Amino acid sequence: MSLSNSFHQPVLVTKVTALLQPEVGKRYIDATIGGGGHSQELLSRGAGVLGIDQDPAAIDYVKERDDLNHERLILVCDNFSQIDEVAKRYDFKDLDGVLFDLGVSSFQLETAERGFSLYREGPLDMRMSSTLTVTAKDLVNGLGKKELTYLFRKYSQEPKATQIAQEIVDKRRKEPITTTQQLASLVERVYRIRRGRLHPATKVFQALRMAVNDEMNSLRETLPKAWSLLKRGGRMVVISFHEGEARVVKQTFQDWIGEEKGKLVTPKPLSPSEEEKRFNIRARSAQLRCIEKII
């Protein structure tokens, strides 16, 4: 298996495959199919996959992949919050597994006009889907200081949330903030000294992306829907990339365990190897959790 993928490098592929145990006749939903890296492993072992992604570019990319068994692959462009309706439409129930790989794909980060990248000049957009109406530019230029501070703290635990919010308000009095580089440079000025590998604006961009796409609410609403689609013995695997997501997943899993509906397959979240972290920088903060349905 090769992790090379011009659209997206999937994370923790070997561990995901081992946990989901794909084989002929089993059926899975890949709720965030991205470039199809995880689904490729499921399909190669004879399983059927319903792949969902709200990004049309991801769906188009996977459609063009000639190394996938498209006879056992159904692709749907939609938000995973609609997983129950999509599954009903294609009669995907009593599933052996559901996978969520949360976060931004390599392709989205590298496409400047999507507005996700700290390092590429582009419009402050950050929408995962063009059907959404509010952009990062709208939030940056429309929210007050208190609202911006709250947003940065809530979604990314940004330690300099107040100072950054004030800098944004001061800057936009002179001119609107419309590009990724304008915002990234502004945050750099607040920090003054850059420490470590992460860009100072990483958490600010993360918070805006999560707010624009309503990621936390969507995840909170979707996990129970996906759970209802699993058969007894079916497994849910979730790969999260930051504290907020991890907290939602952990609490939801604990609730199911407390209700004696599931058992934890991963007592501690699994992380990528040091080798994978070096190979795929996106993997550095990944945490994998898996739960099995017992009733």
Topology-level CATH name of the largest domain: Rossmann fold
Query: Largest beta sheet, briefly?
Result: 7 strands, mixed
Secondary structure: number of strands: 7
Assign a percent range to the helix content.
40-55%
> Which class do the helix and strand fractions yield?
alpha/beta
Number of helices: 13
CATH class category label of the largest domain: Alpha Beta
Assign the CATH superfamily of the largest domain: Vaccinia Virus protein VP39
General description of the model:
With 295 residues, the protein is of the alpha/beta class. It has 2 domains: 13-107 and 215-293, Rossmann fold (3-Layer(aba) Sandwich); 133-212, DNA polymerase, domain 1 (Orthogonal Bundle). The chain is built from 13 helices and 7 strands. The chain has helices at residues 13-20, 37-44, 56-64, 83-89, 106-110, 136-142, 145-156, 161-174, 180-191, 202-212, 215-229, 243-258, 274-279; strands spanning 27-30, 48-53, 73-77, 95-101, 230-240, 262-264, 287-293. Strands 3-2-1-4-5-7-6 form a 7-stranded mixed β-sheet, with helices on both faces. Helix 1 packs across helix 2, helix 8 packs across helix 9 and helix 11 (215-229) runs parallel beside helix 12. It starts with 12 loop residues before the first helix and ends with a strand. Mean pLDDT is 93; it is low at 1-5.
